[in-house]
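does this look right to u?? manganese (II) ion version
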Amino acid sequence: MEEKKSILESYPDYRVDIGIEVHVQLNTKSKIFCSCSNEQTDQPNSHICPICSGYPGVLPVLNKAVIEKAIRAGLATNCTISPKSTFARKHYFYPDLPKNYQITQDKEPICKEGFVTILKEDGTEKKIRLIRIHIEEDAGKNIHAAGSDESFVDLNRTGTPLLEIVSYPDIESTHEVRAYLKALHALVVATEISTGNMEEGSFRADTNISVRKKTDPQLGTRCELKNINSFKFISDATEYEIERQIELLESGQKVTQQTRLWNTKTRQTMPMRSKEEAADYRYFQDPDLPIIEVTQNWIDQVKAIMPELPEQKLQRLCAQGLSKYEATILIEDRDLANYYEAAAQHTQSKLLINWVLREVVNCIKESKTDAATCKVAPQQLAQLVDLIDKGTINNRAAQEVFEVMAATGQNPAEIVKEKGLEQIDNTAELEAIVQAIIASNPDNVAAFKSGKQQVFGFFVGQAMQKTKGKANPQKINEILKKYLS
Ligand code: ZN
Ligand code: MN
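got this back:
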């Protein structure tokens, strides 16, 4: 997991302050204020009713499952759960918002003052503090038809329950942006409150970035990056934006507060709109919705059924012998973690984690699938690493076996047999091979004995060639040393 050098290293006088707002679509069965399905569908305007379409005179009815999921999110991020919270109307006018206001939480959000722990670049822990998590409804979607001057409105998404998770500007680098989003994403997936599918918009991050001289006590003017739907693009856009802002200041110009979009083709951020002053949303408490009361009893009930959290899983995996780095990769990818844990049930081998993080990860990248659908079953990978541990095959043969497994789904022992890949481990046999090589290469022997250490590699290569790569490499080394000294 190599990371590019941060642009900040080229500007040691500067620092960056980043706050992030994440919108998470909750995976409830129905929408937040009506009984319409909350499933994604390709059929526009098929999951709608008078309530989510904003007809006059209708009354919203709060979906209790939304509150429970918000409590889960709050507990998972160390927030205080408000005993009483309220809904407000946030007014703005846009074709995909038929009521002309969004129901959201303004003054009294359901969760306050939490934190998410991340690993900094140097491997130490850092707490990114949360200001709040509030509940709100999503808007619909405007669809602008290509090659036509018509626009359409799809209201399927109106009334989808959202959590908005708002951090303090505690994030200080592109690495930390990524680490924070990965950690938060792992939390919403682990608590089973959202699919976390970024391409479908279930996890959307708005990143507020500002730079300043380290000596400047005040935050700089910020720009907001909106609607970027992959971790990679968010990292790239953040890096670009830090550089753009520093260069503006360095050349004596000012940063204008604005919302910017990431153009994946030009790999630049582009202005979307300027915010000269904060919009007046005319918030007021929604008279149609009751105050939400959350009792300690309810919180305890939610706690009791909470799935294992990433932090707990991290500790459990470390206690089983994984490094913090290895465990962190696993908790960021639930399918991969499940894969590893399923395989670990069948082997004690210390090699397992390396094979999961290297070969399995590469394999799913290449086949563009995920660990859950990898052709090599976890149990089969366990068998493979056991074959290496037992000395049946060497590492090089194991690579070959894995490739066949990934293509055919065959068992490793079967492949080893078919291809005759058993490691040659017999000392007498290997000694004979080494002696023959030494006998037929007197010049190289002389060179080695006169101090040319690098000739040793030639002999190892010869032995591997003669055994078609199947010799036990450790034994070959030992035997060569013995005969060449
Ligand atoms: Zn509806
Ligand atoms: Mn929002």
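The radius of gyration is 29 Å. idk if thats expected tbh
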